[in-house]
Design goal:
The structure holds 2 protein chains of 2 kinds. By secondary structure, chain A is mainly alpha-helical. Helices cover 58% and strands 6% of the residues of chain A. Chain A is elongated. The chains are: A mainly alpha, B alpha/beta.
């Protein structure tokens, strides 16, 4: 199974990471690292959003018969 | 001269006539007004199709009747002319569709009442369309403008979806059966998470196929949730009523099924800003707490260890205050330093000094975004050259 996260998984992870900053787990010592991590993830999501394409296939089945 | 008296029996003659009729008119469309409509033994439908001058007797099995009809309705019947064994002429109908605003509206209301009574349109039956779809089935005519609009909006808003398109007719007498076959196909394959049935705007006659009883029942029976986008906002079909979700147009189907990547980008900016705000707030809070703590400690030292009767100018007391102030300043400086580091991470500070952030692939012809403090510029790279030293 691929470890690559889907775009939706990345967005969900970023939401989680942002919530950490507002949670009781927040530690000032870890904040800068966490912030950098969130920023990297946000940039990766932006890139994915730019490149995301749909695959459209017209089926060869003949539905007239 | 002897005449050839070879003759036919009535049965042979009728068979010959029917053979000739079938050869000459294998499929005929007749448009007329329904009269003398009746159903015999719950199995056979009889009626006449008439105009001002003529009338044709029609017959069809009740299961072929896909929309309710009644006397006075204008309909188009497709069928085969036939002479029955009694020698009477009859038109055997295999497909029947109401036409004209009056007939269509009446048929729509009758079928809506019948299917509504069965609970087919109940809200409780409706299933949610899965969020974040990755596999979608589409039933439409690929040549229709509605399909082009759907694809355009879908691609503009989101990506990463595998879309399987079943090309069918979306108007006319054959459309319902084709769409039913496509529904069956997707349900048998079980590869898609939702099915979108779409068609652009058209006249009431054009959209009448979406009021076909068998099609409505097939949508209701689909094991995969169905979303419809048929015609315009004002058009309401029975397919819309029975579907799990109704969109006003094909473009609206794409809007309801996907997130908007532009909105997602805005949300990202907000998320990052939120984290920055959270860190700054926490540091400010920590600074406040420390300041208060130091004040409390100094007060406590004053009250506990310093004799209040001593003169404030006492040298020892003065030294004690000076030491405390100096420690407090060191602590506050350390906190302010942390805040400066944090603020330096904010790209907005850099942008405010007149710099820009460029994002996108660096290649000739590629589109790039240039982010300034107040604007985002979209540009295309025309030329790339190496930067010389000191340039």
């Amino acid at each position: 199974m691929s470890n690559e996260m889907s775009l939706n998984q990345k967005i969900a992870k970023l939401d989680e990471e942002v919530e950490w900053f507002y949670s009781d787990d927040f530690k000032l010592e870890e904040a800068v690292e966490k912030y950098k991590g969130a920023l990297d993830l946000a940039n990766a999501i932006k890139k994915d959003l730019e490149n995301l394409k749909n695959e459209i296939e017209v089926l060869s089945e003949d539905f007239s018969k | 001269m002897k005449e050839n008296l070879d003759s036919l029996t009535p049965t042979e003659f009728i068979a010959l006539v029917n053979q000739t009729l079938e050869y000459a008119y294998s499929s005929v469309l007749i448009k007329g007004e329904v009269a003398s409509y009746k159903v015999n033994q719950g199995k056979w439908v009889f009626f006449d199709l008439k105009d001002e001058n003529s009338s044709v007797s029609c017959f069809m099995p009740v299961w072929s009747l896909r929309m309710p009809i009644e006397d006075g309705m204008m309909v188009v019947a497709r069928g085969l002319p036939k002479v029955i064994n009694s020698g009477r002429f009859s038109f055997t109908v295999n497909t029947l569709m109401p036409v004209g605003d009056g007939g269509l509206k009446k048929a729509f209301e009758l079928l809506k009442k019948k299917l509504g009574a069965e609970g087919l349109f109940d809200e409780a039956r409706k299933r949610p369309i899965p969020k974040d779809l990755t596999k979608l089935g589409v039933i439409t005519s690929t040549g229709a403008a509605g399909y082009a609009d759907f694809v355009k909006i879908l691609n503009a808003r989101w990506g990463g979806i595998e879309v399987q398109v079943a090309h069918t007719q979306v108007q006319g007498m054959d459309a319902p059966d084709q769409m039913i076959r496509a529904l069956k196909y997707f349900n048998e394959k079980r590869e898609v998470q939702a099915i979108a049935m779409i068609r652009g705007g058209g006249s009431a006659d054009d959209l009448a196929c979406f009021n076909d009883e068998k099609l409505v029942r097939a949508i209701a029976a689909s094991g995969i949730p169905v979303i419809t986008g048929i015609g315009h906002e004002v058009d309401e079909s029975l397919a819309d009523l029975v579907a799990d979700m109704r969109a006003s147009t094909p473009s609206n189907v794409a809007e309801l099924l996907t997130r908007d990547r532009v909105e997602e980008k805005k949300k990202l900016e907000k998320s990052i800003n939120r984290t920055k705000q959270a860190v700054i707030q926490n540091i400010e809070q920590a600074a406040r707490v420390n300041r208060e703590k130091m004040m409390r400690i100094s007060e406590s030292i004053l009250t506990k260890y310093i004799d209040p009767t001593l003169n404030a100018t006492n040298q020892k007391t003065q030294k004690c205050f000076e030491r405390m102030n100096s420690e407090l300043k060191v602590l506050m400086n350390a906190i302010e330093q942390k805040m400066k580091v944090l603020k330096a991470l904010d790209p907005m500070q850099v942008l405010n000094r007149g710099y820009a952030i460029i994002s996108g692939r660096i290649a000739v012809g590629e589109k790039i975004s240039i982010i300034l403090s107040q604007q985002v510029l979209e540009a295309t790279i025309n030329n790339i050259k190496e930067r010389k030293k000191n340039e």
